[in-house]
Amino acid sequence: MSEQNTSALRVERTGTRAYTGRNDRGAEVRIASAGTPEAFTPGELLKVAVAACSGLSADFSLSRKLGEHFDATIRVSGDPDRENEVYPEIDEVFELDLSELSEVERERLLVSVQRAVDKVCTVGRTLKSGSKVTLSFDVEL
What we know:
Blueprint: E1 10-15, E2 18-22, E3 28-32, H1 42-66, E4 72-77, E5 91-96, H2 103-120, H3 122-129
Antiparallel strand pairs: 1-2, 2-3, 4-5
């Protein structure tokens, strides 16, 4: 899952401790402090991003075996370590109905899905590698 044009992404302040994330394709996501209605916290977005990346990475393998219109939910959780201001662990649970498959088919599919996620989920791979994040400023003087 590669980003085509990361410079097109931006986050703009819309109020006290409230921002809106935007891309050039017209998508928007509200980001704010915990408890703000109809908004994600940054930590929630991080967890949603890794779960969505896993789902997108697994989609081809799953649709090939289960058909184009399979149902899937990925539940994601992880509590922050407030002392160190990090999420030490993020847990994903992929919910799928594999009742129509034999035990051997289920095992093969789940191995295939795990390999796909490990290979192409950029968000998960980035978190596992401990990516370097840099901050710079463009200010008017």
